[in-house]
């Protein structure tokens, strides 16, 4: 099956075409046929595509909306330029899998998109006003380009976390706010945490029930998840992706009273403070330099840049604090798993996070840690009682696999039954 995976943003459309089926999933032999993105949709858009052989092609085109961008991409996929002989026309694409950011309490698993499901995704707009509307546009554009009969599947960032128990997802606010507005912890990056947990299981040859790990997704956005018996039991992101770890430009945890204080002292609206916490804080905010961890590491070494060092210290301290908290919540864990751009590529940051966790039985193997850059494997000593692993994430692959699995099982919940009273 050739599955087109789409991630629709406000002015961008990322895609991958993946050949997969149940046999390939079992054998881990899915094949990425091409990938790329359209950016600055709405005017002269920039199209970047990578062919199967790895060649990168960059061009510009006047693409005014997501539908036109998708049409353009599908034409390219079916052309000789893409080097994909299996796809000669749109009908050679057999399904579309969409990343959908928020499934609220309605969607606890990936689902085939029906009109009713689409309504459910619309209902979750309040919870993710910046993301769900774009995801919906991607779904409607696919219907337009491929016709209504092509199966489409929604894979939610939130659904892996539906197993988090009430005592971990409830905020200590007046309870009616939860009932009225569904204010609670939902968690995000679920596709990444789930993919990494699946790979860990395969690497260690353990069952789902035996999977007790803490996964750290450290990219531009960062989150930690406590996984017990293969299920998410707590996660650092909350109602929105702002809570928890220090991120590229997001603050993570702060005292909520600070919002009002900043608003008053700086003469900002709460909306503006929200933007400040999302876009001007985190690594960028502390360092005053950049949200790019590579640059911060370089500057802290070469220039002895004090605030770059400080940003890195706060980042690593917060991650270690969450690991400690999750170990306490879980009772025990077998491994910490690093993923995301920073987690996969920075031995330095991994070491700084793990140093100080010897009490928990974690002993990092320095040479394994240094070697493991963009690779998959163990970085702890063999006799550690708490291990550490690096597992590169692949959210698109999981979306393609879920698309196949959903279509074959025609899994689509009856939204009316799921709706919260
Ligand atoms: P996104 O969350 O946008 O998908 P990524 O997962 O690609 O982002 O992660 C981006 C982050 O990874 C950036 O802070 C970048 O500096 C960092 N990163 C990438 N490679 C390295 C590296 N070799 N060392 C340290 N940080 C790295």
Automatic annotation (TrEMBL):
<feature type="site" description="Transition state stabilizer">
    <location>
        <position position="189"/>
    </location>
</feature>
<feature type="binding site">
    <location>
        <position position="14"/>
    </location>
    <ligand>
        <name>ATP</name>
    </ligand>
</feature>
<feature type="binding site">
    <location>
        <begin position="341"/>
        <end position="345"/>
    </location>
    <ligand>
        <name>ATP</name>
    </ligand>
</feature>
<dbReference type="InterPro" id="IPR004372">
    <property type="entry name" value="Ac/propionate_kinase"/>
</dbReference>
<protein>
    <recommendedName>
        <fullName>Acetate kinase</fullName>
        <ecNumber>2.7.2.1</ecNumber>
    </recommendedName>
</protein>
<feature type="binding site">
    <location>
        <position position="395"/>
    </location>
    <ligand>
        <name>Mg(2+)</name>
    </ligand>
</feature>
<keyword id="KW-0963">Cytoplasm</keyword>
<feature type="active site" description="Proton donor/acceptor">
    <location>
        <position position="157"/>
    </location>
</feature>
<dbReference type="GO" id="GO:0000287">
    <property type="term" value="F:magnesium ion binding"/>
</dbReference>
<feature type="binding site">
    <location>
        <begin position="292"/>
        <end position="294"/>
    </location>
    <ligand>
        <name>ATP</name>
    </ligand>
</feature>
<comment type="pathway">
    <text>Metabolic intermediate biosynthesis; acetyl-CoA biosynthesis; acetyl-CoA from acetate: step 1/2.</text>
</comment>
<keyword id="KW-0479">Metal-binding</keyword>
<dbReference type="GO" id="GO:0005737">
    <property type="term" value="C:cytoplasm"/>
</dbReference>
<dbReference type="InterPro" id="IPR043129">
    <property type="entry name" value="ATPase_NBD"/>
</dbReference>
<keyword id="KW-0460">Magnesium</keyword>
<feature type="binding site">
    <location>
        <position position="7"/>
    </location>
    <ligand>
        <name>Mg(2+)</name>
    </ligand>
</feature>
<comment type="subunit">
    <text>Homodimer.</text>
</comment>
<dbReference type="GO" id="GO:0005524">
    <property type="term" value="F:ATP binding"/>
</dbReference>
<keyword id="KW-0808">Transferase</keyword>
<dbReference type="GO" id="GO:0006085">
    <property type="term" value="P:acetyl-CoA biosynthetic process"/>
</dbReference>
<dbReference type="InterPro" id="IPR023865">
    <property type="entry name" value="Aliphatic_acid_kinase_CS"/>
</dbReference>
<keyword id="KW-0067">ATP-binding</keyword>
<comment type="similarity">
    <text>Belongs to the acetokinase family.</text>
</comment>
<comment type="function">
    <text>Catalyzes the formation of acetyl phosphate from acetate and ATP. Can also catalyze the reverse reaction.</text>
</comment>
<keyword id="KW-0547">Nucleotide-binding</keyword>
<feature type="binding site">
    <location>
        <position position="99"/>
    </location>
    <ligand>
        <name>substrate</name>
    </ligand>
</feature>
<keyword id="KW-0418">Kinase</keyword>
<feature type="site" description="Transition state stabilizer">
    <location>
        <position position="250"/>
    </location>
</feature>
<dbReference type="InterPro" id="IPR000890">
    <property type="entry name" value="Aliphatic_acid_kin_short-chain"/>
</dbReference>
<dbReference type="Pfam" id="PF00871">
    <property type="entry name" value="Acetate_kinase"/>
</dbReference>
<feature type="binding site">
    <location>
        <begin position="217"/>
        <end position="221"/>
    </location>
    <ligand>
        <name>ATP</name>
    </ligand>
</feature>
<dbReference type="GO" id="GO:0008776">
    <property type="term" value="F:acetate kinase activity"/>
</dbReference>
<dbReference type="GO" id="GO:0006083">
    <property type="term" value="P:acetate metabolic process"/>
</dbReference>
């Amino acid at each position: 099956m050739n599955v087109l995976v789409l991630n629709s943003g406000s002015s961008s459309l990322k895609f991958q075409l993946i050949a997969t089926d149940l046999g390939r999933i079992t054998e881990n032999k899915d094949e990425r046929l091409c990938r790329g993105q359209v950016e600055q949709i709405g005017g002269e858009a920039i199209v970047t595509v990578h062919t199967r052989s790895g060649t990168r092609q960059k061009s510009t085109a006047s693409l005014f909306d997501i539908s036109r961008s998708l049409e353009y991409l599908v034409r390219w996929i079916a052309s000789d330029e893409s080097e994909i002989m299996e796809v000669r026309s749109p009908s050679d694409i057999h399904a579309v899998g969409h990343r959908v950011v928020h499934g609220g309490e309605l969607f606890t698993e990936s689902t085939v998109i029906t009109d009713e499901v689409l309504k459910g995704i619309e209902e979750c707009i309040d919870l993710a006003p910046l993301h769900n509307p774009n995801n919906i546009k991607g779904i409607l554009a696919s219907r337009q380009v491929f016709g209504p009969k092509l199966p489409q599947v929604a894979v939610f960032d939130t659904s892996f976390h539906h197993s988090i128990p009430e005592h971990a997802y409830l905020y200590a606010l007046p309870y009616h706010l939860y009932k009225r507005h569904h204010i609670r912890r939902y968690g995000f990056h679920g596709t990444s945490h789930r993919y990494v947990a699946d790979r860990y299981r395969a690497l260690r040859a353990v069952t789902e029930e035996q999977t007790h790990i803490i996964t750290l997704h450290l990219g531009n956005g960062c989150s930690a998840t406590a996984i017990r018996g293969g299920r998410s039991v707590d996660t650092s992101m909350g109602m929105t992706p702002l809570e928890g770890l220090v991120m590229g430009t997001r603050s993570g945890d702060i005292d909520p009273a600070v919002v009002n204080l900043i608003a008053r002292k700086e003469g900002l609206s709460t909306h503006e403070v929200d933007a400040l916490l999302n876009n001007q804080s985190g690594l960028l905010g502390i360092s005053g330099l950049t949200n790019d961890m590579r640059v911060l590491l370089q500057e802290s070494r070469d220039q002895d840049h004090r605030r770059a060092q400080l940003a890195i210290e706060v980042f690593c301290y917060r991650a270690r604090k969450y690991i400690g908290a999750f170990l306490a919540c879980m009772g025990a864990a077998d491994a910490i798993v690093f993923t995301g751009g920073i987690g996969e590529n920075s031995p330095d940051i991994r070491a700084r996070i793990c140093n100080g966790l010897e009490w928990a039985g974690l002993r990092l193997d320095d040479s394994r840690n240094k070697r493991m850059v963009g690779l998959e494997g163990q970085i702890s000593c063999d006799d550690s009682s708490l291990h550490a692993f690096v597992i590169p994430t692949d959210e698109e692959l999981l979306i393609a696999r879920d698309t196949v699995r959903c279509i074959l099982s025609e899994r689509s919940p009856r939204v009316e039954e799921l709706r919260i009273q």
